[in-house]
Amino acid sequence: MSLEAIAKIRAAEESTEQSKAEAKAQAQRLAADAEREGRALLEQGKEKAAAAAAAAMRQAEEQAAALRDQILDQAEKDCKKLKADASARMDKAAQAILGRVVES
User: Fold this and answer.
1) DSSP code string of 28-81
2) Which pTM was predicted?
3) Which residues contact 85 (CB under 8 A, 6 or more apart)?
4) According to the model, what pLDDT value does residue 1 have?
């Protein structure tokens, strides 16, 4: 084999080795970039989920407060009605007691 052919073969082998090394380095960079992007997306997902949970909690608290106020208003109305009914019956009760006392 001539020296020229051997030199061409060595150059081709070196070129192939250099291409392999570059491809390996590029693959490692791509993998690192993909992992970094994946972690960033995961963090964004966690932040969005936390924000959604906080918003849902605020909404639930607002609904609970509104329901509490509604129940308290209804209870106040019911109490006023019971007091009014009791007050209306008080005269009848007093007359009934006086009637019994007088009869005795």
Assistant:
1) HHHHHHHHHHHHHHHHHHHHHHHHHHHHHHHHHHHHHHHHHHHHHHHHHHHHHH
2) 0.54
3) none
4) 65
